[in-house]
Amino acid sequence: MRVLWLTNDLPPRAGGIQQFVGNLLDRVHPDDTLVVGPAGDDEAAAHDARQRYRTVRLPGPVFPTPRTLRSTLTVGRSHRPDVVVLGASWPLGELAGRLGDGLGVPVVSLSHGLEAGLPGVGLGRLVRRATRDLAALTTISDWTEDRLRPHVAAPRLVRVPPGVDEERFTPDVDGGRLRERWGVPPDAPLVGCVSRLVPRKGQDRLVRLWPRVRAAHPDAWLVVVGEGPLASRLARAAADAGGRQAGIVLAGRAPWEDLPACYAALDVFAMPCRTRLAGTDVEGLGIVYLEAQACGVPVVAGDSGGAPEAVRPGETGTVVDGRDDDAIVAAIDGWLADDRGRADAGAVGRAWVERQWSWTAIAERFARLLDDVVGA
């Protein structure tokens, strides 16, 4: 099957949606796939050259503009796809009808937390518009599906959540070299967050609250891995909290190949996400929680959107109100104080990810969906 993807979210740029898209590209008809994606740099060019699928990058971001439509139709006609896949239904779904008509093929789209947040602020009509010309829409969690279903115009709504490469993300990965790079003692208790630096994720609260955690655990360290618009604010907050003298490391962006080691280096993964902007800025699921658990690390998750579905509370981690400072501190303190509990949670989390969140099974589900819409 020949597949044409149109997406603004594409590796090697860091982010959960980028990893979601990248893993599907790696596993579903990669030799017969062409991707139209956003502008990239030298790192992106090197990444693209290593892939089995071919990537055409536009001069800027991929938005539903006449230029994007013209460029996609041009490369699409040379590729002769059987189906078009959109990396996100809003706003790219606005192009679905013209892409489908221009190429004579069905269009399928992924959805994420943003689309599910729109109906909550009275913008369900945008979801309806963006899905009216789709053959199928995918959802990533119970939470997103419940909120999208009344507003989706596409005839098919299919669950395709993000998954985990259980062979790549594993407790056997050596995280010691990253501890050394970060300047963290090899035996120090280490709490960390690996994600885009945006307000929803809660890294700001982790940094601000860290002195309270360290008061109970004087040898503990905090590492924040990632890049994004919150970076400068986090740097100021880290300095105010004592910086490296207080055990705080802002590690910046980690290369794609280092992500498993980032998780494996930790004792506790914490991302106390919170819903913002009247419900439009929400966590659809939270692949980072699954990747941490695959590496045998217990998690502290915020209660935004579908994030609680990525945790087995009390068994593999703790779900907290991402705005409740006391709850965040208590959850981190509880895991740091319980060596046996962390080990047990790591084992349970690893087994749960293997059983329920394997990319192999999820990619097979997505491949069947493409088969169904093409054969309809």
Structural features, described:
- The protein is α/β, with parallel strands linked by helices and 376 residues long.
- It has 2 domains: 3-163 and 358-375, Glycogen Phosphorylase B (Rossmann fold, 3-Layer(aba) Sandwich), CATH 3.40.50.2000; 176-356, Rossmann fold, CATH 3.40.50.2000.
- The chain has helices at 16-27, 42-49, 66-79, 96-103, 113-117, 124-131, 142-148, 176-182, 203-216, 231-241, 259-264, 287-294, 325-336, 339-356, 359-375; strands at residues 3-6, 33-37, 54-57, 83-86, 107-109, 136-139, 157-159, 190-194, 221-225, 248-252, 268-271, 299-302, 317-320.
- Strands 3-2-1-4-5-6-7 form a 7-stranded parallel β-sheet, sandwiched between helices.
- Helix 4 (96-103) links the parallel strand 4 and strand 5 (107-109).
- The longest helix has 18 residues, at 339-356.
- The chain is globular.
- It starts with a strand and ends with a helix.
- The mean pLDDT is 96.
Written as H for each helix and E for each strand, in order along the chain, the element string is: EHEHEHEHEHHEHEHEHEHEHEHEEHHH
Query: Gyration radius, to the nearest Å?
Result: 21 Å
Low-confidence stretches: none
- Sheet-strand content, in percent, reads 5-15%
The first-level CATH class of the largest domain is given as Alpha Beta
Range of helix content: 40-55%
DSSP summary, beta strand count? 13
The CATH topology of the largest domain is: Rossmann fold
Q: What structural category arises from helix and sheet content?
A: alpha/beta
Q: What is the count of DSSP helices, taking H or I runs of 4+ residues?
A: 15
CATH architecture of the largest domain: 3-Layer(aba) Sandwich
* CATH superfamily placement of the largest domain: Glycogen Phosphorylase B
Structural shape: globular
Strand order of the largest sheet: 3-2-1-4-5-6-7
How is the quaternary structure best described?
A: single chain
How many distinct folded domains? 2
